[in-house]
Every structure is written in C-alpha cells, then in structure tokens.
Amino acid sequence: MSLQSFIDSAISPWMQEEGPDHDIVLSTRIRLARNFTDVPFPIVAEEEKLKIVSNWIKTHFNQQSFNQYEGLEYFEMSTLQPIEKRALVEKHLISPYLMEKEKESGVLVSKNEQVSLMINEEDHIRLQLYFPGLQLDRGLEEAFHMDDWLEEKIDYAFDEKRGYLTSCPTNVGTGLRASVMMHLPALTLTSKIGKMVPAINQLGLVVRGMYGEGSEAVGNIYQISNQITLGRSEQDIIEDLQSVVEKLIEQERFAREMLVEQSELRLEDRVFRSYGILKYSRIIESKEAAKCLSDLRLGIDVGYFNHLSRSILNELMVLTQPAFLQQYAQETLTPKQRDIKRATIIRERLGLEES
C-alpha cells in the first residue's frame, strides 16, 4: 500500500475540507445523548435488554442513508480486532469507553465518516456529527434533523420537566455536548492559556485534550465544550460556546502577531528546528511528533512555508497514532518499532508535499 492510498483511506473525507476559521479551529462536534424509553440504561441493563436496542438499530438504520449522510454501516464491537477499535478511537468515531465494551455494543458510521452513532455506550444512543472549522450553528441544525429522523422510529426517554433522560446526570436536559477542537500554539507558548482555562471553566465550559475527558492537550490541541445541559436551551449553549471560541480565536491570532513581531527569530528557529526533526528523524516518539507538528502548522499559518498545506497537521495527528501505524505496517509493532514507523510516515508525507 502506498502512503497516498493509505492517507486517502485513513483520513475521513470531511477532515480534508477547510471550514470557517480553519487556521485555528480544526473541527466542530455536536453530540446528542438519547435513550430508549422502558429500557434500562446500558450501565445497569442486562444483555437481553441491550440486545433490544442493538437489534432495533440494525433493523431500522443499518445500510440506510439520511440526506447527505449516505451508507450508514453498523460495526459490532465484539467482531472488531483491538487495533481496529483503537483506530476508530483515533478518528474520534467512538469513545475510549465504547472501545472496552463488548456485549451488544457497536457504532453506526456514515460513508463519509461525518456521522457516527455509538450504540449502548453510557447511553443507548450517542449521535455525533463532525464539521471542519467552526460550524456550531450548522452542526446543531444538522444534528436536530438527524435526531428527528431517528425519533420517527424510536420512542425516546423524555421527561417534561427534566428533558431527555440520560445515564449520567450531567447530560440530563438537552443531552447536548458541543465541542470545538482548537490549535492554540501561541497562547500556549506565551503561557496565557493556563490563565484562561479557569475563566472558561467558570462560564460552564471545560477545556480538555483532543480525546476528551481525561486526555491531555498534546500538540497544543485543546477541546472546548459545554458542561451544562440542564435548564438551558440548545441554542443558548451553542451561543455561549461560540462566544468563548471566538474570543480564543481573537486572542490566539493576537498572540501569533506578537510572537512574530517581538520574537520572530526565536519563533522561526523553533519552527525550522521542528521541521528539521520531522524531515530527517529516523525515530520519533508520539509526544515529540505532536509538538513538532504543532510548530510546523504554526509556521505554515504565519507564512514560513508556502509549499505545505494546513491539512498536514490534521492528517499526521491521525496517521501517527499507534493503531494507524500498525494498520499501515500491516503488523503488530512494539513501541520502538512504532517510533521508527512514525518517523518514516512523517518523512514520506513531507516528501509528498515537496515532490
């Protein structure tokens, strides 16, 4: 398999597009938590009850299409190999929690991988839609449309006072988790992000790493999402998140301008050192690769490189993860072998840009 064909098959089609504010915002995700009425939540349900949900999903939605989201296909967790599950996590199509589940759990994925429905995770259904760049309003509208389509065949657990009922109290109400993935290298380099996080938390939002709860912000990539789902409308939640994200975009752009104006030689040195490491290394660990890729993306954004595309960060952040490295190698790799393969893929990917 050539690297180009591997990239074409490994990167979700929507990830190759550039959305609004794409220089800073990598992606927008809208997630809705829903449950069947009269079926216990997955965290307490017996297998026969979970089977009701999985069979219903497979019967009514497998191999179906909704608007532009064509070819929904159901994958059962129990039939997937560990590396395949890990690859789904690395592409954000399933959660690390679902990866560990077996009984009557699965995921329904659209052909363009823009939509995934996690089945029998913490809730019976967790509908996810992804969009490039900052597209919260569009994301919410599309999620509502698909939610209505699902509800035509599913009787949701809903309470007039509390809203949608979920296994975790923090999701009760709208069941909405909206999140924006942001690349904030300048705010990190100037140590401003650490001061902003507490203020963001006070607004009912949370800052996490690229894989959500429990993950660290590797490669200066941060996920900003809402915490409150009860007592507020979906539109209010989206507007609050939009406002904070727009402020972060403004602050990041200003910090980049200051770095270029006041520390251009230091910044240029950092960026080109990282470029050299990526271009010539024979062994590279994941954290070092993420740091160097972040520097390279920053260099592209401030105009140091005209021959490299912005999509390189999105692509290599996926392609250099453990499961994808082993998929490309078509074999199980030790940590050292993965570090060697990671360096090889990065060199080859940069070579494609420069050829």
From the alpha carbons, calculate the radius of gyration and give it in angstroms: 21 Å
**Low-pLDDT segments:** none
Largest sheet: 8 strands, antiparallel
Helix content percent band: 40-55%
Helix-strand string: HEHEHHEEEHEEEHHEEHHHHHH
Q: Give average pLDDT, whole number.
A: 90
- Major sheet strand order: 2-3-4-5-1-8-10-9
Q: What would you call the shape? A: globular
Tell how many strands the DSSP assignment holds: 10
Q: What fraction of the residues are assigned to beta strands by DSSP?
A: 5-15%
**How far from one another are the termini?**
19 Å
Which structural class do you get from the secondary structure elements? alpha+beta
Count helical runs: 13
Task: Kindly describe this structure.
This protein is α+β, with helices and mostly antiparallel strands. The chain has 13 helices and 10 strands. It has an 8-stranded antiparallel beta sheet with strand order 2-3-4-5-1-8-10-9, covered by helices on one side. Strands 6-7 form a two-stranded antiparallel ribbon. Helix 8 packs across helix 9, helix 10 packs antiparallel against helix 11 and helix 12 crosses helix 13. The radius of gyration is 21 Å and the shape is globular. The model has no long low-confidence stretch (mean pLDDT 90).
